[in-house]
Amino acid sequence: MRPAPVAATLLAFSASALLLLAPPAAAAGPDVDRRVGDPRITESSGLAVSPTHAGVLWTHDDSGNPPLLFALAPSGRITSTTRITGLPNVDWEAMAAFRDPAGRAWLAAADIGDNQAQRPSVEVDVVPEPARLGADVEPARLRLRLRYPDGPRDAETLLVDSSRRRMWIVSKGLFTGTVYAVPSSAWDGTLPDRPTARSATLVPVGTVPLVLVTDGTVAPDGTVLLRTYGDLAAFDPFPVDPGGRFLTPRATGGLPSQQQGEGLALEPDGRSVLLSSEGSDQAVLRVPLPDDIRALLGPPPATPSPAATRPSRSPSASSHPAPAVVPDREDGGLLRVGALTGGAIAALAAVVALTVAAVGVRRRPANGNRGPRRPRT
Questions:
Q1: Is residue 57 one of the residues assigned to a domain?
Q2: Which of 27, 68, 324, 341 shows its CA 20 to 30 Å from the CA of 335?
Q3: ∠ CA(228), CA(229), CA(233), 5° rounding?
Q4: Alpha carbons 44 and 276: distance in angstroms, whole number
Q5: Would you say residue 2 lies in a domain?
Q6: What are the angstrom distances between the C-alpha of 309 and each of 70, 99, 104, 132, 316?
Q7: pLDDT computed for residue 136 by the predictor
Q8: Residue 79 burial by Cβ neighbours in a 10 Å radius (0-12, 13-18, 19+)
Q9: What is the 3-state secondary structure of the chain?
Q10: If we measure between CA atoms, which residue out of 287, 259, 262 comes closest to residue 274?
Q11: Maximum alpha-carbon separation in the chain
Q12: Which domain holds residue 292?
């Protein structure tokens, strides 16, 4: 294909996207919830609220660091570390904390980062949350080795819906993110009594119109919250069956500026989100949810007893209607970008400039030179 038509297509897409962008609702000003000052944490990429320890947040470092989960007290001090034995931290980018149907608390670390899109498989490792905070060493109780059906890709978002007993990964695409469900044959919400490894192929279930998704979480009622570097979007419960759906946000909101905002967690009262950032001595911000997003969330559930069983729930049992989708189209729905959030404007403007510059540039010879790689984020 000659470069001129490609450039023209990208220009048309960029122009259409800029015209269709709707500014998200502005979020209320943030407060500093705590500051991550421990020198062991310089790249807080994932964030989760402890299911059992009041006021505790869990986080972890990025690639190349020890496979440690850190418990952060309200003061920001590390009160506990959990080392997952027998595996490296290749590129930990997300985590989740949840209860299983028996009420037991678990922590999941997602080794899913792949900036060069070349890993043949990625991994999610699940360990028990320590009943007492201290130094713990745990082998992964469940190790999920996961492959993408459409080739390797970068991702920074792990979602766990403990009520529906399902798990998803969302890729970090430049213009959109693909949502992949973990098959129930690999994880059905229960955890084995002894260390177990399972392999599975992820199931693509839809696409979200967000630029560079860096984290997400699932509210108790099934509402999905996803963040980018500058925006927050709320979705109906994600589907689990295969499909090329275009999943549109029910509401969006702007997020405050951070050095490199990546972590997202929902406060137990459902009124605010917590945001972490990569970098040394970074603050965890508490941001009140915009009214239109908060209105989508059901009331917070009563605190379950340790032995409480949470029944499985299908999307039809949710308080929300079925996920908003756009039928499959030959053009892949690329021009349906009205749902893109405000943080996309700069990226789209950059594409316009790059495609203008690309017009008239000769195609590179087929010598294996793929050009510059996207810098690590």
A1: yes
A2: 27
A3: 30
A4: 6
A5: no
A6: 28, 10, 10, 22, 20
A7: 87
A8: middle
A9: CCHHHHHHHHHHHHHHHHHHCCCCECCCCCEEEEEECCCCCCECCEEEECCCCCCCEEEECCCCCCCEEEEECCCCCEEEEEEEECCCCCCEEEEEEEECCCCCEEEEEEECCCCCCCCCCEEEEEEECCCCCCEEEEECCEEEEEECCCCCCCEEEEEEECCCCEEEEEECCCCCEEEEECCCCCCCCCCCCCCEEEEEECEEEEEECCCCCCEEEECCCCCEEEECCCEEEEECCCCCCCCCEECCCCEEEECCCCCCEEEEEECCCCCEEEEEEECCCEEEEEEECCHHHHCCCCCCCCCCCCCCCCCCCCHHHCCCCCCCCCCCCCCCCCCCCCCCCCCHHHHHHHHHHHHHHHCCCCCCCCCCCCCCCCCCC
A10: 287
A11: 67
A12: 22-341
CA-to-CA distance for 325 and 318, rounded, in angstroms? 16
Contacts of residue 346, defined as CB under 8 A and 6 or more positions apart, other chains included, come to: none
- Number of alpha carbons in the 13 Å side-chain half-sphere of residue 330: 0
46, 128, 268, 301 from 50: Cα distances, Å: 13, 11, 10, 15
Structure tokens at 88: 């490296």
Query: Is there a domain that residue 1 lies in?
Result: no
Structure tokens that stand for 37 in this block: 């000052």
Domain count across the chain: 1
List average pLDDT for each run of 10 residues in the chain, which is 377 residues long.
38 37 54 92 93 96 87 94 89 95 95 94 96 88 97 97 96 96 96 95 98 97 96 97 96 93 94 93 94 87 42 37 36 32 42 37 35 41
**Token reading at 112:** 């899913």
CATH assignment of the domain containing 47: 2.120.10
Residue 364 lies in a domain: no
- What backbone phi and psi angles, to 5 degrees, belong to 317? -85, -5
